[in-house]
Amino acid sequence: MSNPDDGGIGYWLRWQVAICAFIVVGPGVAAACIIIKKSRAAETLYYSDLWKSCWRCLNPLYLLVFRAFALVCLAPVLYGVAAVDGIFTYYFYTQWTFTLVMVYFALGTVISAYGCYWESQNQSPSGAGTAEASLFLETGLDDIDKGGRGIRGTDETVQLKAGFWGYLMLTVYQTCGGAVILTDIVFWCLLLPFQSDEHFHLDVLMGCIHSLNVAFLILDTILNNLPFPWFGFLYFVLWSCVYMVFQWALHVGGISGWPYEFLELNTPWAPLWYFAIAVVHVPFYGMYVLLVKAKYSLLPKWFPGAFVSRSYH
Hints:
Oligomer: single chain
Number of strands: 2
Largest sheet: 2 strands, antiparallel
Distance between the termini: 63 Å
Strand order of the largest sheet: 1-2
Strand content: under 5%
Shape: globular
Order of helices and strands: HHHHHHEEHHHHH
Radius of gyration: 22 Å
Structural class: mainly alpha
C-alpha cells in the first residue's frame, strides 16, 4: 500500500484535501461565472486610454518608450532565472506573475506604438488617418458598431471604444496589479525570512524578480490613464486558482514536493492555510485599488493644470 505521505492514493484521501480543493476551485468557478455574466457591465474603455498618458503635457511617445524599456529590462531577468531553474522555472507563482507583467508591457508597447503612429497619420495634411483607422478597426484592436455606440464625442476629439486587444490589455493589467503585490510581499515578508529552501536565498536575480515587476507596474500606473476597478479582482482570483490547479495536477502526476510549504496537504492545518491564502487576495488587490484611487483623487488637486481627469467615463 502507498505511503500516505508520498503523494499516493492515501495522500489524496485525507479529509483536509476535499476542503482545500473546494477553497481552490470554488472561488475560481464563481469568478469565471461572474466575469461571463457581468463583463458587459464593466467600465467603458476607450482606445486613447490605452496609449495616452494621464499627464497632459507628456507626449505618448514617452509612455511608449517607457513600456518598451520595461519589457527590455524584465526579459533578461526572466531569462536568467530560467537558465538557473530550467524546466522548473514556472513551478513558482512568481515566474507566472513576472511573465504576465511582461505580457502587459508587450501589449502596451505594441498598442502604444500603433496609437502614436495612428495619431501621426490623423494629424498629417494628407488625411491618411481615415484609411489607417479603417484597417485598425478591421483588425480588432478597436471596434465601432454600426449604430455609433462605439464612438463618444468630446469638445476636443472623438473617443473610439476599445476592442478585444484593448480589453485584453486592461484585464492583464488588473490581474498584474494584485499578483505583483501578493508575490513581492509574500516573498519579502514570509518566504525569505522563514523558509529555508535553496530557492529562497537572496541573490541579484531573486531580488530583481521580486521587485522590478512591481516597480515598473507602479511607474506605468503613474503614467497611464487606465482604470483599476474592483471588478478586476475576479481576474486576479481566477489567475491564482489556475496556478493552484496547475500545482495540484503536477502533484497528482507524481512530481514530489510543493513549491511553497503552506501548500502542503499533509497537515491538519492545511485548510486554514488555504483559507488564509484565499483571504489575503482581498487586501493585496485592495492595495493597488487604493493606489489608483489616490492617483485619480490627489494628483488632479496637486497638479490641476497637468493631470488629465477620467471624468468623461
